[in-house]
From TrEMBL:
This is HTH cro/C1-type domain-containing protein. Residues 65-120 form the HTH cro/C1-type domain. Signal peptide: none annotated. Transmembrane segments: none annotated.
Length: 146
């Protein structure tokens, strides 16, 4: 049975390849010097946009991320630094080719984005989650409301 490597980059927290013997991922290792640029932050007005709120309420993260990027004038690389998701995954997510459905990824992403409780991401009347909606909402609620 293969051993799962759970090492993470010391700068950005992304998982490291099992072939990477460094403490940093390749992207972080390319940055020269000891000072790493801080991940961009999202302005508060992003969460006041009704289209963003609707996408989050529907748990349509691809649309939400695209709208957030456009409103905040961010690149996918910037969004990747904030969320911890790869730029290529964000691209396929935004295009609709893939969906973010794994609770182990959704909860940390919402936390890193700083999604406020009133955004609608934690609940939506009539929404049916494919995996234990009540448990999912409790987990998301616990992260957003520590």
């Amino acid at each position: 049975m293969a051993h799962k490597d759970n090492r993470r980059c010391t700068r950005c927290g992304n998982p490291l390849s099992r072939y990477n013997t460094d403490e940093r991922c390749a992207a972080c290792a390319r940055v020269t010097g000891n000072e790493f640029p801080a991940a961009p932050t999202l302005p508060d007005h992003v969460w006041q946009n009704p289209t963003v709120a609707a996408a989050l309420a529907d748990w349509d993260f691809g649309t939400a991320f695209r709208l957030i990027r456009q409103i905040a004038s961010l690149r996918q690389e910037d969004m990747s630094a904030i969320t911890g998701l790869s730029q290529s995954f964000l691209s396929t997510l935004e295009s609709g080719a893939r969906r973010l459905v794994n609770i182990d990824k959704i909860v940390p992403v919402l936390e890193r984005l700083g999604v406020p409780p009133a955004s609608g991401a934690t609940s939506r009347p009539g929404f049916r989650c494919p995996v234990s909606a009540a448990g999912f909402r409790r987990a998301v609620h616990a992260v957003i409301h520590p």
